Amino acid sequence: MLVIIIWILVFMGLVLGHELGHFIAAKRSGVKVLEFGIGLPPKVCTLWKDKSWTAYTLNRLPLGGFVRLKGEDPDVQEDFHAKDSFIKAKIWRKIIILLAGVTSNVILAWILFTVILTAGTRPIVVVSENSIQAQHASYLFPTKTFLYQKWYISDTAKQQIENIPVTIEDVQSWSLASTLDIKTGDIILSINKMKVNAWNVDTVLKNISWGKVDLAVQRKHKMLAFSWACGLDHCELGIAYTGIDISAMGLFKDQRIKLPLGTAMLWGLKEIGSETAATFNVLWTLGKWLLSFQRVKISQQLNKMTGPVGAIKIGGMLYDEWGWTFFLAFAAMISLALAIFNVLPIPALDGGRLLGVLIQGIGKLKPEKYFTIESYINMIFFILLLVLGVYIIFKDLVTFRGVKIPFLS
After folding, report:
1. C-alpha distances in angstroms, 336 versus 102, 309, 323, 348?
2. Closest CA to 333 of 87, 11, 74, 42
3. Does 273 share its domain with 408?
4. Are 123 and 140 in contact (CB under 8 A)?
5. Residues 48, 169: one domain?
């Protein structure tokens, strides 16, 4: 229960940090801030008002917060023409205000990554050599090769891993492997006559380009051979093989990765680059399937999404099993995810509003009329995002809490 309370406070802090970025940028740009809300409406009370008459309010729903700027309400037409309204601000000031929240979340993620790497941590996951994250050096999501190059895995430990066979633990029903009758429990002996083991299997699979591929496996006491042709665009076998828990095997020379402050700051930035690339890849895949209009695939992608309930559950599991450093790492990833999500060019998000500001500036549109139209578009998309959020929360309740909900259970 304590972890849940802590995670709710952390999540609130990340969202409030985002809104604080908008708040500071607006104040510095001369745009009046009417309200800084802690939590979401309905309002409980006004805590105080500062010298510029900004109201600091406490609201009932503990899901973050918001900043309300002068000139954002289409029903208050007189605010449109005020010198200190958002709509009358110069375009470069609007851009700064809209990007300030995203920037704030990125800075928070950077600080958290730096703290973790300075205090000392272990890798969260040792990723496959052919994963998206493997394209970027990372201490939190490293490859075996990266850890070996950084001297966290000794030559002796590397030899131990090379003696571990590659056992298939899952075969996707739709996959090429299923068609070839490759089964769970098969041990991969070689690929294109190259012997494979737990150390080199990722690299060998990554280097398969196209043409004929030969696979030799052991099934109990039998030796079997499979062949297939790879296309130019992809060569996906559709299997999962047993991973190697390097931490559990005690293969690190030093069980903790601990960097000097300056080095940790640099690698904190690299962690942001790695996570950003991986996140955009996931978003691209998600968007592609959502726009496919194929019900089964859309359902599969929606089921992969998680929200506050799922985040609380995952955060609690990380804390219970690995301690506060993994918990902070997860918080850093959530902060970065908030930044990436908000920068997407979708109405109601910062990226959508930024796109609207650019369209208005380039098209020389009359601000008052354009903003009124945009505000209604934002409202529609806000409702759609809210509905999606409610769906994800309900789905998480089904998944993590066993709550029975019609049509979702």
Report:
1. 8, 18, 21, 19
2. 11
3. yes
4. yes
5. no
| Inter-residue contact 374 to 73 (CB < 8 Å) | no
Q: Are residues 219 and 264 in the same domain?
A: no
pTM reported for the whole predicted model? 0.78
Structural tokens at position 205:
């699979």
Same-domain check for residues 230 and 267:
no
- Express each pLDDT in 206-250 by its tens digit: 777 667 888 899 998 899 998 888 765 566 777 888 766 665 555
Average pLDDT, the chain: 80
HEC string of 119-165 equals HCECCCCCCCCCCCHHHCCCCCCCCHHHHHHCCCECHHHHHHHHCCC
Q: Check whether residue 266 and residue 407 sit in a common domain.
A: yes
Tell me phi and psi for residue 283, to 5 degrees.
-65, -40
Do 234 and 334 have their domain in common?
no
| Total tally of structural domains belonging to the chain | 2
Report pLDDT digits (tens) over 68-84.
Answer: 999 877 667 777 778 89
Q: What is the residue range of 195's domain?
A: 165-241
β strands within 193-241, DSSP E: 194-195, 211-219, 222-230, 239-241
Domain-embedded: residue 145: no
Calpha distance 266→277 (Å, rounded): 17
**C-alpha to C-alpha distance for 303 and 398, rounded to whole angstroms:** 11
> In this structure, what CATH number is given to the domain that contains residue 204?
2.30.42.10
> How do residues 245-262 score in pLDDT, each as one tens digit?
665 555 555 567 889 999
